[in-house]
Amino acid sequence: MTTEEDSKRLAELGYKQELARTWSGFSNFAISFSIISILAGCFTTFGQAWNNGGPIAISWGWPLISIFILIIGLCMSELVSAYPTAGGIYWWAATMGKPIHGWFTGWLNLIGLIAVTASVDYGCATFLNITINRLTGGGWEASLGNAFLLFVIVLVLHALINIYSHRLISLLQNISVWWHVAGAAIVVAILIFAPSHHQTVGFVFTDTINNSGFGSGEGGIPFWFYVLPLGFLLTQYTITGFDACAHVSEETQGASTAAARGLWQSIFYSAIGGWILLLAFLFAATNVDEINKQGGFVGAIFETALSSPLATAIFAISTIGQFFCGMSCVTSMSRMTYAFSRDGAVPGWRLWSKVDRNRTPVNAILAGCVVAALITLPALWAPPGSTTPVAFLAVVSIAVIGLYLAFLIPIWLRLRMGDKFRPGPWTLGRKYRVMCWIACVEIVIISIYFIMPIKPSAIPGNENFTWTDVNYAPVLVGVVLIGIALWWTLSAKHWFTGPRRTVDELPMP
After folding, report:
1. What mean pLDDT is predicted for residues 156-174?
2. What does the DSSP assignment read for 87-154?
3. Could you give the dihedral angle defined by the CA atoms of residues 111, 116, 117 and 123, in that order, rounded to the nearest 10 degrees?
4. What is the pTM of this model?
């Protein structure tokens, strides 16, 4: 499909071509592959799975949950093929349903994208903090304050890159793919050949760990039906943000097929690469006591199994990968902000929907980064004796809940439309029905689990209750949902009509 044909298809959907359509199909795949980033999620949320289930939550949990996520991705690939717009899932929901569907989908998606940007950049800052500490021989203190300072610096850098170099972003997305492939391969090779001994196959595929404080050990109903599912946050968080393929579809050549293919392929290849990487972690995890002592922190594996230079090299490889990931998150988040504002849904929408002379939504980039910094402020505090703020996992949960609930609405609407749906060139055919049902049920289940307390001390009334342990994801998500529901009821339903056409007529062939 030529650029002219892409612009014509966009005009048929109601929009004139404002963003520069310079991205190749590979670049479209690259942005979601970079946002998924096995060098980010596999490292930063490893401890969540280690403490809640142990090896089986990783060795079995990762491929199991990956299959469900791939099904969600395939359902979304069909939708982006039919509707390749920057609004992505918000546009799909408003078109297949009513303005109210678009309203809730758009806000959930926007919240999720801002939260995933915050969590990725904070994770990058955390690993950068550790890397600098190691390189300076302890001269740089790896404190929470310094981690937050680096977080702000990383956010600023990502904003500047996105503002001043549209073509550079596309290039860096492509470089990011190869960095993730080569970097992960190097890490796996180090963990295979450098340690003096490894864990057994039995440990990796059958051992369980329960450091959550819930239940009476590593068995029984509480473990299998509460603790272990909490460990699945590792997979569900890592493999997310793949809707970026839709958000940059107005900048992608041949978007009806390229964006659909890029979306599901980014999930598929990340799932395979991530599983290999995580298995390498587990086989190198020979000092279980020290890993438990450090709260399941993945760095404890490297520090106990490798020489100091090799451990530092792994930290550095992951940090750079996470930097690429955060850059891609800002790109996706800003395009969603631009598209949702273009349709008048965001307060001050005229400001956020502006593009500069380089056809870049500068104001949307700045606004999203500022909000990402604000919602991460609680990460300045951590529970006594811990170096990992629960606030980080809360932001992770917000990202997962916001994004996947936003995915749920258009998938359910497509299921409801049945044969009335007009597919694009990439379609699921008759398989859409069973796949959409599976996707909807999985999203509902994980959304319930990830608003639950992560520790017993997060439950009011517990003798060890502390506010620093509270998972504030349900509070923030609940407040936002109530807020946008009230906003809709009292005001928006009278003026918000969904996507606004920016073209009066179709371009001449």
Report:
1. 84
2. TTHHHHHHHHS-HHHHHHHHHHHHHHHHHHHHHHHHHHHHHHHHHHHHHTTTSS---HHHHHHHHHHH
3. 150
4. 0.89
Class in CATH terms, 3-15+23-494: mainly alpha
What are residue 305's phi and psi, to 5 degrees? Answer: -100, -15
Report the candidate in 341, 422, 327 with the shortest Cα–Cα distance to residue 106: 341
According to the 3-state scheme, what is the secondary structure of 417-435?
HHHHCCCCCCCCHHHHHHH
| Segment 299-322 mean pLDDT | 96
For 190, the token pair is: 């180090």
**Separation CA 16–CA 504 (nearest Å):** 9
Structure tokens belonging to residue 417: 């439309």
- For residue 23, the 8-state DSSP code is B
Backbone angles phi, psi at 296, to 5 degrees: 80, 10
Token code pair at residue 488:
């809709």
pLDDT in tens, 86-122: 777 888 999 999 999 999 999 998 988 898 999 999 9
- In degrees rounded to 5, what are phi and psi of residue 505? -150, 160
Give the residues across from 210 on adjacent strands: 52
Q: How many CA atoms are closer than 13 Å to the CA of 351, on its beta-carbon side? A: 8
Nearest CA-CA partner of 47 in 202, 163, 211: 211
Residue 366's contacts (CB-CB under 8 Å, 6 or more residues apart) are 159, 163
Cα–chain center distance at 232? 14
Residue entry with tokens 């272990």: 228
pLDDT digits (tens, 9 = 90+) for 34-81: 889 999 999 999 999 999 999 999 999 999 999 999 999 999 999 999
Q: Write down the domain spans for the chain.
A: 3-15+23-494
State how far the Cα of 88 lies from the Cα of 108, in Å rounded to an integer: 13
Smallest Cα–Cα separation from 87: which of 98, 70, 103?
A: 103
- What local confidence, expressed as pLDDT, does residue 386 receive? 53
